[in-house]
Design brief:
Oligomer: single chain
Number of helices: 6
Helix content: 25-40%
Radius of gyration: 18 Å
Shape: elongated
Mean pLDDT: 87
Number of domains: 2
Largest sheet: 6 strands, antiparallel
Length: about 220
């Protein structure tokens, strides 16, 4: 009998609990059945993918940013808005050229192995995807002795601006891409990255200064 991977089932349950009415589908349509896909059951009868729409109040850019910033141990890759983020590439964004650009939904795949043929690492249903606390980078203790808000991940990120280079710039560019900006992930904080950042700040993270500091990082990460 076929079933969802336990990690996918947990993701679906957490999304429904936090964003009721969100469309999540597991089983592929006829087009999927004619090719290798995680929307088809693997040899063990397990479906290892979910497609998630933003129709229940869930912000898809924030969802993607959350998934790639704090990936679930079973997560293999994410596809959204013509970009794919794979564990094998440290979830750095790469161009996706599939038939669907996934502009209106996010594809989440789990497990080890080719599409439709995962054999391990998909049934961790005990680890939360932390959908209810998108933004809290430190899970609360089981019995907290006193209220604690923790430290947001963005507060730990370095402040970067035009002229900077390196892995943090690539992360910034990847997050901006997840929010819908068209950039090249080259690790160079140049004019186009600054323009995209300023536009993002004008909508989500004032002041508009073109500098990625704690406020901007947290907003990019959906915190």
């Amino acid at each position: 009998m076929s079933r969802s991977a336990k990690s996918i089932a947990r993701l679906e349950n957490e999304i429904e609990a936090t964003y009721p009415g969100t469309t999540v589908w597991i089983v592929g349509d006829e087009a999927h059945k004619n090719t290798w896909s995680d929307h088809n059951a693997n040899a063990a009868g397990v479906y290892c993918a979910a497609d998630v729409k933003g129709d229940g109040g869930l912000s898809l850019p924030k969802f993607v940013a959350h998934l790639i910033a704090r990936p679930h141990p079973n997560l293999r890759y994410v596809i959204f808005n013509h970009k794919i983020y794979e564990r094998s590439n440290d979830f750095e964004p790469e161009d996706y050229h599939g038939k669907s650009g996934h502009e209106e939904h996010v594809h989440v795949s789990v497990g080890n192995g080719p599409d439709g043929r995962s054999t391990t690492n998909y049934d961790n249903g005990s680890t939360s995807w932390r959908i209810a606390s998108m933004g809290d980078d430190t899970p609360p203790p089981a019995k907290p002795s006193k209220p604690s808000t923790g430290t947001k991940l963005g507060n730990k990120m370095p402040t970067i601006q035009r002229g900077n280079k390196g892995s943090r710039v690539r992360m910034l560019q990847g997050l901006l891409i997840a929010w819908g900006y068209k950039l090249t992930v080259d690790g160079i904080f140049g004019k186009q990255t600054e323009l995209a950042l300023r536009d993002f700040q004008s909508k989500h993270a004032k002041p508009v200064d073109g500098i990625a500091g704690p406020i901007t990082w947290n907003k990019l990460l959906g915190l």
